[in-house]
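User: I'm curious whether this sequence folds into something compact or stays loose and floppy. Could you predict its structure so I can see for myself?
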Amino acid sequence: MNNPAVLCTVVPPHVLDRLAQHEDPAVYEPARRTLEHDAQLRTQRRITTVRATAAPTGTPSDKPERTIYDAGHQETLPGTRVHAESDKPSADATVNRAHAGLGATFELYLKAYGRHSIDDSGLPLLASVHYGEQYDNAFWNGEQMVFGDGDGELFLDFTLPVDVIGHELTHGVTQYTANLDYFGQSGALNESVSDVFGSLIKQYALGQSADRADWLIGAGLLGPRIHGEALRSMKAPGTAYDDPQLGKDPQPAIMDDYVRTSRDNGGVHINSGIPNHAFYLVATALGGNAWERAGKIWYATLTGGKLGKDAQFADFARLSAKTARALFGDGDEIQAVLKAWSQVGVPTA
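Assistant: Here's the prediction. I'll summarize afterward.
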């Protein structure tokens, strides 16, 4: 099932819905503006179908090609070009963070998995910063990254967490590979894959092993008025925030708590907690650097050509187990994968 009007944003609609109902204008006005904007974009956009393209001539470069634009607080993309690949650091810290985050994403995919950019053919990486007025979100629109500045109270600058940048760019990787339908369990897998690689990009950039990582998505993004650590926790789904304005993090960690809802394309940002937690369990059981073994299993599962667009959790679980065995044999890796999916209540047989 292809979903029309798909927009992959990092802040889920259910979070903005809650803030939009607040009585304080300082809380509800930015949230309502962001919701209205995202709704307009959803009506404009149809899910991007990756069409066959001509094979690239020559070998794609091992260096990223990044261009940063300044939207000037307008909503017209891409905006004014302010930074090219060879430019010296900008006086604008947001521009520099976007440049660095695009580079960190390119680096992880190249060094860990031999992937040349988002499409594996050296796709130039484009980003627009300072988008909209107090825009409380970041998104991948099928062609480029877009970052809001946040409103300063509920959400800060969306270039601050490198895992948010990696999360959104990974929607592009999924778009060019399995192209998972953005609805229900396949949509939750789409979101989870972005969280997985967003976290791995942060861990790789920081040189963190699985036991040292915080396994949080969007740490440092929540503003001073919000009580919470991040947008999501892969280690403990449902604990990222508990705030009078945001409410309590609704993510489940196991299938027994799966949330059935018609909102947010069938709860794609909520139920992603289940496969997120499965990956965390695999990575921490194996130890060491999560991108090396657990990450390779997930990457090969996503990109191997056998994952259907409408894949359910059990489909991904079964395929990840087969992939673990194919990559590593009958050792610790396959056992960790089987145990993790069992712990979250997803069958692999």
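Summary: The chain is about 40% helix and 10% strand. Confidence is low (pLDDT under 50) at residues 1-5, 46-56.
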